[in-house]
Design a protein that fits this description.
about 200 residues, alpha/beta, 3-stranded antiparallel sheet, globular, binds iron/sulfur cluster
Amino acid sequence: MFVSHVLAPVVSLGPGERIVVWTAGCSKRCAGCISPQWRSQSPDQDVDVDELAQMLLDTAREYGVHRLTVSGGDPLEQASELVKLLATIRCAYDDILVYTGFTFEELPQVIGADTWETLKSLIDVLIDGPYIDELNVPDCALRGSTNQRVIYLSDRPHDDYDQYLQQPRQLQNYVQDGTIITVGIADRYHHEFSAKEV
Ligand code: SF4
């Protein structure tokens, strides 16, 4: 599975303290793309799904982080690997949020009806649709643009999301390996995940 970055704890991409996995690779070309650095893939980003799953399980056990966000890139362009990952770690995570540039209606055809049915059973919240730069408005929490929908797929209560969506957008800065990393949904002309070497 091609993965560009993993970071925790993150509070700017969903309620509570979360671990975030950014997958690498997206074939779409949204104007003003919110994560252009993760559209391509390189061999050094190809990680073993079992090893990634074990790392997520260890994080949940050792640090008490039980919420996961999967962003990208587009995670749904690696649907089979995503199914394997989420099926392995689902037992340790109470809340799984996944972003995709496909619409909810497109997904059965794009990834196959059976894969989609399985994936739906593993995801709590899906944020769907391409990024549209003109629809990036500041009060659009959790989403890059207002066309994107927050879709509750599981039966768990989603009061935490309802409250989170009422709040302003958040950005977090991290320093990792000499690089400043900004995480969150930013206003127009900025990126969900931006990194600058210092
Ligand atoms: S779906 Fe996301 S990563 Fe892909 S081009 Fe659109 S904004 Fe960029």
